[in-house]
Design a protein that fits this description.
Strand content of chain A: 15-25%
Number of strands of chain A: 14
Number of domains of chain A: 2
CATH architecture of the largest domain in chain A: 2-Layer Sandwich
Oligomer: homotetramer
Helix content of chain A: 25-40%
Structural class of chain A: alpha/beta
Distance between the termini of chain A: 43 Å
Amino acid sequence: MRKLRMGMIGGGIGSFIGDVHRKASSIDGMIDLVCGAFSSNDERSKKSGKALFLPEERCYGSFQEMIEKEKQLPEGERMDFVAIVTPNHMHFEPAKMALENGFHVVCDKPMTLTVEESETLVNLVKKTGLLFALTHNYTGYPMVKQARDMIANGDLGTIRKVQVQYLQGWLATEVEKTDNKQAAWRTDPSKSGVGGALGDIGTHAENLLEFITGLSISEMAADLGRFGQGRTLDDDGNMLVRLSNGAKGTISFSQIATGEENNLAIRIYGEKGSLEWHQEEPNKLYTRWLDEPFKVFTPGGNSLYEAAASSSRIPSGHPEGYLEAFATVYRNFGKELMARLEGNTVPAQDYPRVEDGLRGVKFIHAAVESDKNNAAWTKL
Amino acid sequence: MRKLRMGMIGGGIGSFIGDVHRKASSIDGMIDLVCGAFSSNDERSKKSGKALFLPEERCYGSFQEMIEKEKQLPEGERMDFVAIVTPNHMHFEPAKMALENGFHVVCDKPMTLTVEESETLVNLVKKTGLLFALTHNYTGYPMVKQARDMIANGDLGTIRKVQVQYLQGWLATEVEKTDNKQAAWRTDPSKSGVGGALGDIGTHAENLLEFITGLSISEMAADLGRFGQGRTLDDDGNMLVRLSNGAKGTISFSQIATGEENNLAIRIYGEKGSLEWHQEEPNKLYTRWLDEPFKVFTPGGNSLYEAAASSSRIPSGHPEGYLEAFATVYRNFGKELMARLEGNTVPAQDYPRVEDGLRGVKFIHAAVESDKNNAAWTKL
Amino acid sequence: MRKLRMGMIGGGIGSFIGDVHRKASSIDGMIDLVCGAFSSNDERSKKSGKALFLPEERCYGSFQEMIEKEKQLPEGERMDFVAIVTPNHMHFEPAKMALENGFHVVCDKPMTLTVEESETLVNLVKKTGLLFALTHNYTGYPMVKQARDMIANGDLGTIRKVQVQYLQGWLATEVEKTDNKQAAWRTDPSKSGVGGALGDIGTHAENLLEFITGLSISEMAADLGRFGQGRTLDDDGNMLVRLSNGAKGTISFSQIATGEENNLAIRIYGEKGSLEWHQEEPNKLYTRWLDEPFKVFTPGGNSLYEAAASSSRIPSGHPEGYLEAFATVYRNFGKELMARLEGNTVPAQDYPRVEDGLRGVKFIHAAVESDKNNAAWTKL
Amino acid sequence: MRKLRMGMIGGGIGSFIGDVHRKASSIDGMIDLVCGAFSSNDERSKKSGKALFLPEERCYGSFQEMIEKEKQLPEGERMDFVAIVTPNHMHFEPAKMALENGFHVVCDKPMTLTVEESETLVNLVKKTGLLFALTHNYTGYPMVKQARDMIANGDLGTIRKVQVQYLQGWLATEVEKTDNKQAAWRTDPSKSGVGGALGDIGTHAENLLEFITGLSISEMAADLGRFGQGRTLDDDGNMLVRLSNGAKGTISFSQIATGEENNLAIRIYGEKGSLEWHQEEPNKLYTRWLDEPFKVFTPGGNSLYEAAASSSRIPSGHPEGYLEAFATVYRNFGKELMARLEGNTVPAQDYPRVEDGLRGVKFIHAAVESDKNNAAWTKL
């Protein structure tokens, strides 16, 4: 077997998430970055590629050029898949074109601006049979997998109550008016879509909730805030949610929660037990029980289900973090792709897919609609 | 000066909150329990009194008897105030009668079953000029006072976002069907009123939020749950709230949050900083800032405002808990009462009052109404 | 039955530990403070007593006067026991005189300045049959009792390794040169004895270690520090210890650990499991196991042994603190004394005794000797 | 510029630390693994190499073969440096030979079995001018660099007291008697050297202490334990230490601390402030102060010194872990090496060097000597 070959769309030098994708894809030694359209400016793309030690001829000035030229390279050389790490409005076109030209896709979230675009991608994936991974990276943490499997195995009993929060403070002041690129596009509806913080982090909250519980949000009442002066997109939100099995709960997210760093946290209460997980301390899963003491699970520690046990890379007590969880999405996608390329059949691996992307985009639109109607209950 | 003399209504042997009131009122050595109507059964009342080392003649079979007989005792002997520690439906009548007969009152929460009853008490307090303390005991914690004063002093800037949760798990199973008295009356509308967990702990969440922020909830959307089989009262609830200054947030409370003990927690986000406090670790106040490191305040520690500094009883690092915070309500009430009895004028001391009780009862009724209307926004 | 009657020696207004003893003895409603020799100055003693609502005639100008006069009062009126809350050098004489005159004793630690004095008290207690409680208050915490009972029941297997630390920072600067009475006597060998921090907090570390493990320190190598300018007594210390069963470990204590409040913590490692407890978060007992997840025990929570279950006063999640643990020493002493006064036989209750006091004083002297010999191993 | 080319010695499939070195060296995209002597068995080495996607001809059966053959490759192809990830007894020879043949070295710790071997390497590095990095990986954590720089800048004032602990439990039972390779060589003096846990983790404790404080241990009294049946090497140890400036403290390490995972922690107390860091929660640096509240620093957070700020790879709140800290050693080594290869001059980068390796080996031998003399003070 050989290493997988990745082409990157977006992610020029200075990009936050492009750098994360590069590091995450390299940790497990399965994937080589072989080409990129790092910028829509050819010169800037080549400059970024050079800093990444890529040959100039494989640094392209547009994703169209990359897809076309790579397609013409010999099979033993051309990229296997694209990683799309652009702002939201630039996910759909590259993903569509990649799929139409036979390339597998890893795409950042939210998947597209509109529900229709997402449905198009879902259909394309079905039609082409190509692999599509969506980087809901928080599902890659071992303790998140443990949480999911404890619930799937009935350890907590029927789920009754949920709480998810995703709190950041980096937009507490209007940094989009300074030279902050990250803030600029995220507060710009033409690039971010109809959701601000909602799309950026609210979708992670939604995905984590549905991933861990195995339940779906059936309806929601959303009250969005726009606290930064001059912002048209939400920078804060609070929701009531009702789940498919009758459970109830709240989702709260914010990018104006002053001083918060990346405080994604979830609490799930079942009839027999409950669990709690905090992204900022990802290596602890707190659980509480009707008749037993409070128990804390750790990666590589005692009494784990298989997925948690196998998704930890190093012995217990050696903290794994954000990049490793992100890498697990790549690793699982990579395993499935390698098997495919070798003509082997493997069970579907554990990573978020195009359908999860559609779900997230529906969530954004439902929340925006609810908010417009003064937080009226809205089906999802 | 002399010690204050307290008469207790309710709180017979085996009672949870009666015992708490006795311990809390005794810590500071200012108050003696001198009489009680511990039960509506004369024999049981006397038995309870005996175990508390009280003379038989001051253990009464009803609050009416106690108020009448004590009133006839010489001034140097009769009780100064009553402490009402009965289930909810038995707050109003004793409080009213005590006030009408010249006795000051300490009363547990929620203050009454109906808004009208609460308004009656507010008016009676106004008319008689007697003191009335409501035991929203969580306001007694030094770090809660520090939180309030940091916001009042503008340290956090304009408040934008709030989160309050009060999570317990003791009603996760239907313990009211066993021999659990606490559960029995709390799930019985005739004793608890229209709110279940809502009245029992939701009111603490509301009070804490308004106490710390100095803002009031202007409207709410409440989605209540009744998860325990056969329950007619809520045992869980989630709310969206909007505050008087435009801030937004959530309140979540539950008594079916399996495994949770007494997890009352609050997060407040302002333009310049934010704070976080957890009742189960009451001696830490977490604060986050735009430009400074995360800071933690502790009772007796550095950089406290006066109320926090003076409401700690022992040096920093010697944990104070639930009883001490509860005792602070008694201590502050007691200071004001002592001054009154000595004919001195003192500034109004820092403890929750009859108006806070009215506010809580309004909150219960607004939430129930919102819930009936599928979580429609309801003014408070 | 009646309430117990306590006479206090030391503890005038402004005293730290006297106030703690008063609060702790009052929480459970079993003990009344009836008299005191709060100061060796008669006027000051009376002034303190007045603030405590005591009649002037029972506020004495010396412990000798108190013991003599109280002895002459009728049995139904005179104090039952003395609480000795003076600086170290004033423990022995009052304790001896109280015992010789038939009064039971509660005494602060370290018990005496010399080993000989301690042995005298041990013998007097044996001879008189009177009760003697030493306020090693940290043994009163429910989770400390749980720790002890887990080890006693073999849950952890044979103990191999121990770590105890007791870190404070209040003597990081030379506050004894300011108007700080607490610092003044603690850094004065004539009042504190041969140990400084060693006697004040090192003895708590020693006691906690032996209490929880059920093992004794057989030898130690102590390296004491005197960091504050001009100090002749230690304000810091580090020790290697070897226990009676072959276990090894360290004790570290300090009053110059800048910024530390009252950080007493212990870790015990056995063949099958281990435990960890922190005084500043006293309501959690952390345990780790060969084959099971990390478990945390809480007062009133699941799976407790009897002593921990019964020594908690309020439901789980309602934090109990320093005063409550201190109160448990009084409560258990009080139960035994009440039974005695009523002529009943009760099993020996769970509180530290005169023998623990002797042990602590031996520990101080052994550490000082070891330190003088450049931390040579010294038997205890 | 081009990527650096690494050859690995040891680290065949299934190895713990070899895999860590591979992941850590790949994260930043600066280093390619190009060859390896993964095993002293040629076939096993080639099998490991294949799984790592290496060409067969660059998988060697011995480090000698690798060094010789790689030396003969054209400059544009041959490895730039070796990474030595073998058990302790196999560090010296490969390191020596690599240096003698012009290859830079990254080597795991402890550097060698004997002090003489370490001195040989120190001299070779001096003579050849080649780079030598020792993977004391814990120095790579951003908060460890912050701790060092706070002390170097005098924020804490003169250091008075230190505590270091490194606690693991994986040797609590005699797993070396099962099929556990990691345990087998670590408990075997012929492979591990004179120190067991002492060499494996005690040296990390020593290095961290000296790295953060900028002070050196001048003497120590060490009491080592051998608790596992049949072990000749220590599996536990406790030490008193005295530092070059008069500070005092303890080091405690263990691999029989049942249930502990990788609990390396340090506390440093200065005249003006103190700090505390825990490897298992590496993204928090706790600090305490004479006159200010408790403050917590985080990577990417507010108020950091430059080294901490720049050694974090992702925004604050996105946890970085063990691999990232390890990667920072490689990154800094790589930066210096790249500059060297390009003929540029750069300031010495921040990573542990051959002198740190010598220090660690001296520490091991001093501790063993002290222990043999019943924990007598021994100079370091």
